[in-house]
Every structure is written in structure tokens, then in C-alpha cells.
């Protein structure tokens, strides 16, 4: 899904270059659609990585774990064994939604203002799209960095 989102963004750029007479509304729909798919893709990838179908292993210590898989921090293994990861994941997931939900609203309304009134709103729309692209790429990078950090910390403490 991340690849699909990136493809849609690239498609919007290619269309904009190849077909200059294409209406702006079509481009911005593809662009916004691509960004939304990209965000969903990030989210689904992380979720499916956390809850494997048959045998689930702990993200940090690779131990086979049982119990509820969603939301991930409700699993007692994380709460008891990797308490710092548990606290961080809980907080950052809340932050993610706090940032993601309003930003969808801002993005949609800025696109609307741009198409409706143009002019100075085009800068506003451009900025929000840019902010989204940065957020869409930096959040998963930040997530996996953090997880790697927790993993390393665990290995240092528990290896003989
Ligand atoms: Zn574990």
C-alpha cells in the first residue's frame, strides 16, 4: 500500500508534466488520494507486522507471545516485560492519531480553498501537502528507529 501511495503521487506528477491541460481537480484528487493511501499503507504495514497470523513473536525479544494482539500495548507481554516500549508505543500511537486526523481535515480544506479561490491558497495547499509528505515518510522511519533502539537495549541487557 505504501508503494501504491507513492505510485499515485508519481502518477500525479507525471500527468501534470505530460498533460498540461488536465484539470487541476483531477490532479489534486490523485495527489490527495495518493497521500491518504500512503498513510494507510504505513499504518497497515505496522499493524500487520505486529500481529502475524499463526505464530506471533515479540517485536523486541522475538519470543512467541500469546494474548490479545490489538491494540498491541494491551498484550501483557509488552506491559510486563518491555514496559518502556509499552509506554512509548501507547503514547506515540495517541500522538499519531492526534496529528493524523486533524491533518487530514487541514489538507482537505486547504485543497478545497485552493481549488475554489486559488491565489494565495495555492501556497497554503502546497505547504500542507509538503508537510504531509514529510510526515508520511518520517513517521515510519521514526517508528522503526525507536523499535531498533528498544531491541538493542533488550539484547544488551539479556545476552550472556
Ligand atoms: Zn518480548
Q: Care to describe what's here?
A:
The structure is a single chain. With 160 residues, the protein is an all-alpha fold. It has one domain (2-158). The chain is built from five helices and no strands. Helix 1 runs antiparallel to helix 2 (24-50) and helix 2 runs antiparallel to helix 4 (83-117). The termini are far apart. Bound molecules: zinc ion.
Helix/strand class? mainly alpha
Strand content: under 5%
Number of helices: 5
Helix % is: over 70%
Q: Report the count of strand segments.
A: 0
Please provide the ordered H/E string of secondary-structure elements: HHHHH
* Bound compounds: zinc ion
Q: Characterize the largest beta sheet: strand count, sense, and whether it forms a barrel.
A: none
Task: Kindly report how far apart the N and C termini lie.
Answer: 40 Å
The mean pLDDT is 79
Radius of gyration: 20 Å
Overall tally of structural domains? 1
Shape: elongated
Ranges where pLDDT stays below 50 over 5 or more residues in a row are none
Amino acid at each position: 500500500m505504501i508503494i501504491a501511495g507513492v505510485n499515485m503521487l508519481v502518477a500525479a506528477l507525471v500527468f501534470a508534466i505530460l498533460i498540461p491541460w488536465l484539470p487541476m481537480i483531477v490532479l489534486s484528487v490523485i495527489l490527495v488520494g495518493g497521500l491518504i493511501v500512503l498513510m494507510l499503507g504505513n499504518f497497515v504495514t505496522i499493524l500487520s507486522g505486529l500481529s502475524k497470523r499463526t505464530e506471533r513473536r515479540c517485536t523486541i525479544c522475538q519470543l512467541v507471545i500469546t494474548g490479545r494482539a490489538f491494540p498491541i500495548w494491551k498484550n501483557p507481554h509488552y506491559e510486563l516485560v518491555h514496559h518502556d516500549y509499552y509506554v512509548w508505543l501507547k503514547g506515540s500511537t495517541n500522538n499519531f492519531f492526534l496529528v493524523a486526523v486533524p491533518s487530514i481535515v487541514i489538507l482537505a480544506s486547504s485543497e478545497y480553498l485552493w481549488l475554489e479561490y486559488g491565489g494565495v491558497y495555492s501556497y497554503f495547499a502546497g505547504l500542507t501537502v509538503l508537510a504531509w509528505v514529510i510526515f508520511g515518510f518520517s513517521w515510519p522511519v521514526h517508528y522503526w528507529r525507536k523499535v531498533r533502539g528498544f531491541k538493542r537495549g533488550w539484547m544488551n541487557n539479556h545476552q550472556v
